[in-house]
Design goal:
The structure holds two protein chains of two kinds. By secondary structure, chain A is mainly α. Chain A has one domain: ABC transporter involved in vitamin B12 uptake, BtuC (Orthogonal Bundle), CATH 1.10.3470. Helix content of chain A is about 80%, strand content about 0%. Chain A contains 14 helices and no strands. In chain A, helix 5 crosses helix 11 and helix 8 packs antiparallel against helix 11. The two termini of chain A are about 30 Å apart. The mean pLDDT of chain A is about 85. The longest helix of chain B is centred in the first third of the chain and has 35 residues. Chain B has a single domain, classed as ABC transporter involved in vitamin B12 uptake, BtuC. Chain B has 15 helices and no strands. The chains are: A mainly alpha, B mainly alpha. Chains A and B meet through helix 6 and helix 14 of A and helix 7 and helix 15 of B.
């Protein structure tokens, strides 16, 4: 649809405007009803009124976190789908979210980890471990790496980590209190510090992936051709795998496990702009941010006055999508 | 897998079944004897027949035994449910939890607990109805999963993919309802969805027992239909079997068994996958020789998992579902890597 570079650049500009709009909407709408003008004044003429405090201290971090976490999940999903050639790959499906959560809980239970920084490292370690495990396991065996084996191995690893996590939390109730809010997968009530800690990793991984996106185009033709063209495919897969894991890991560290963003977005982006990863990745970032912002705003209204964890919201949206992709695009 | 070959009882399924149920009884006695107040097996037997002292009897009859008997029936139900499901879908990786049926039953149970409880957190209808709800939830989910996986037949791997997705949807739905419901019920529901037999009592056992036995009996009656189905639809139709009708009947038996197990034990995973596989390795793939044996294996799995759950970190309970997943998930991956993709085109 957007097939010249000029229209694609315009698309980026329009996308950024949309995201800014959604972020502002995230400031305005919710249980405490405010108006657009109040939201504007909260920043430029701050008072200590209830609405202003809610907007500045509750909704502003929430909007920013949703945007960044969504972007990371979107790009991570796009990269995983490319390097595994599996239209169903995404951080949640491949067990990466569950692995990251499990490692964080292990840290909290056994090492009494408190600092946000160590949450981050544990989350990276867990994401890496789970991704490597699933990737290696499903590459062995008769037929090598097939999308189905990868997806099913991912879901088995998810089940395993999820039940270990639950077991550990039963053993240690103080840990339960400490991490339960985070395990639900939500962008609400997260201190902005969490994001600030993760931001450098997110930005570096995003930039590295954007800069080298061209290599993904070569890789997507097929390993044989890519090797023929002089690409070191193993190294490229490793490089992008690391980017995807850092992005997914930092998203989990900030917001907890949120599923299905990474699977939806690339499928919406590709029909729009084609197969060039130099554009797919930035568009996936914008798409992920927009989706998570929307889901987060929606999550405030479904059960008003209660809020749904946004991870539940994305699952409800994402499952029909997953089924559609599984029926249409997986060759079984 | 040499050890399994040596353990092969293909020609003596009856003997093997008796052995496995003797093992079940042994584990039940051992489990009944262990805990905060250990009892020797002889004391356990004495107390069971009314000869032990009063204290032993109270511990045993009122606290430990309902749980152990519950584990027995939950394990048997899940195993037979999985055996039927693997047969009718001709899919060695199918099991009620992997294709979302358990999650559907869980959602139905949470709906029941939230819809029918009043402000005092007591149920407004009899708990007798709970298995029916779980059964309806399991059946509806199974139908949805089968419909969504249908595309010129049901390819085994597509069934699993769709099942995973539907399970995720049902879990999200469960979270929504738990959040909406009364707080007390919510915390109860959270413990229960982990898959634990903690707090089973005799009244629950008296509900699960007749249903479990009834459904297992029906599955034995349908053994011929089951064997014919496993030959493939063409042959089955050729010998005059009403394929789709039989398949639906057997599916209802399977969802019924999952439903009653989930109603009282929550989502204890992987038993329905593991038990039939172990049974097939030891007594061979014929349904009539395998089904009771896998019931025994399922009972063993849940009994041991619940025993560990009760004793390993006492006084804290680590839900039985954690232990079955610890064994089951690696085994699932092993199967995934070794299984032939028959009929998956």
């Amino acid at each position: 649809m957007l097939n010249t570079n000029t229209t694609r650049v315009w698309g980026i500009a329009i996308g950024m405007v949309c995201i800014l709009f959604l972020m502002s909407a995230s400031l305005v709408y919710g249980y405490t009803h405010t108006t657009w003008s109040k939201a504007f004044l909260a920043f430029f003429n701050p008072t200590t009124s209830n609405e202003h405090i809610i907007i500045r201290d509750v909704r502003y971090p929430r909007a920013v976190i949703a945007a960044f976490v969504g972007a990371c999940l979107g790009v991570s999903g796009a990269i995983m789908q490319s390097i595994t050639r599996n239209p169903l790959s995404s951080p949640s499906i491949l067990g990466v979210n569950a692995g990251a959560s499990f490692f964080v809980v292990v840290g909290v239970v056994f090492l009494s980890v408190q600092s946000l920084q160590s949450y981050m490292w544990l989350s990276f370690a867990g994401a890496t471990f789970a991704f490597t495990l699933v990737f290696v396991l499903s590459s062995t065996g008769r037929e090598g790496l097939t999308p189905i084996k990868l997806t099913l191995a991912g879901s088995a690893i998810t089940a395993l980590f999820a039940s270990f996590t639950q077991g550990l939390l039963v053993l240690n109730e103080t840990a339960l209190d400490q991490v339960l809010f985070w395990l639900a997968g939500s962008v609400a009530n997260r201190p902005l510090d969490l994001l600030v800690n993760a931001l450098p990793y997110m930005v570096v991984a995003l930039l590295l992936a954007f800069i080298r996106a061209k290599e993904l185009n070569v890789l997507s033709i097929g390993d044989d051709v890519a090797i023929g063209l002089g690409q070191r495919t193993v190294w490229i897969k490793f490089f992008f795998g690391a980017c995807a894991v850092v992005l997914a890991g930092s998203a989990v560290a900030v917001a907890g496990p949120i599923g299905f963003v990474g699977i939806i977005i690339p499928h919406l982006i590709r029909p729009l702009i084609g197969l060039d990863h130099r554009w797919i990745l930035p568009y996936s970032a914008m798409g992920g941010a927009a989706l998570l912002l929307l889901a987060d705003i929606g999550s405030r209204y479904v059960l008003m006055p209660q809020e749904l964890p946004v991870g539940v919201m994305t699952a409800l949206i994402g499952v029909p999508f997953f089924i559609f992709v599984a029926r249409r695009k997986v060759g079984i | 897998m040499k050890i399994f070959n040596r353990l092969s009882f293909t020609s003596h399924p009856f003997v093997a079944t008796i052995i496995v149920f003797l093992a079940v009884v042994t584990v039940m006695l051992l489990s009944a004897g262990s805990g905060e107040f250990p009892l020797s097996p002889s004391k356990v037997v004495a107390a069971l027949f009314g000869f032990g002292d009063e204290f032993d009897q109270t511990i045993l009859i009122d606290f430990r035994l309902p749980r152990i008997v519950m584990a027995l029936f939950v394990g048997m139900s899940l195993a037979v449910s999985g055996a039927i499901l693997q047969g009718i879908t001709k899919n060695p990786l199918a099991s009620p939890d992997l294709i979302g049926i358990t999650a559907g039953a869980s959602l139905a149970v949470v709906l029941f607990l939230t819809l029918f409880s009043d402000e005092n957190n007591s149920l407004t209808v009899s708990i007798q109805w709970l298995p029916l709800f779980a059964f309806l939830g399991a059946t509806l989910t199974a139908l949805v999963v089968f419909l969504l996986s249908w595309k010129n037949g049901i390819a085994p791997f597509r069934l699993l993919l769709i099942g995973i997705a539907v399970a995720a949807f049902m879990q999200a739905g469960t979270t929504v309802w738990i959040l909406m419901g009364p707080i007390y019920r919510a915390s109860q529901a959270t413990i229960w969805t982990t898959g634990s037999i903690y707090g089973a009592n005799w009244s629950q056992v008296s509900i699960i027992m007749p249903w479990s036995l009834l459904f297992i009996a029906i599955s034995l009656l349908l053994r011929k239909q089951m064997n014919i189905l496993e030959l493939g639809d063409d042959i089955a139709t050729g010998v005059g079997s009403r394929v789709q009708l039989n398949r639906i009947l057997l599916l209802l038996v399977s969802t019924g068994l999952t439903g009653i197990a989930v109603a009282f034990a929550g989502g204890i995973g992987f038993v329905g996958l593991l038990a039939p596989h172990i049974a097939k390795r030891i007594v061979g793939p014929k349904f009539q020789s395998m089904v009771l044996f896998s019931a025994g294996v399922g009972a063993l799995l849940v009994l041991i998992a619940d025993w560990i759950a009760r004793v390993a970190f006492a006084p804290i309970e680590v839900p039985a579902g954690v232990w079955t997943a610890a064994v089951g998930a690696p085994y699932f991956i092993f199967l995934l890597l070794t299984v032939r993709r028959k009929g998956s085109s």
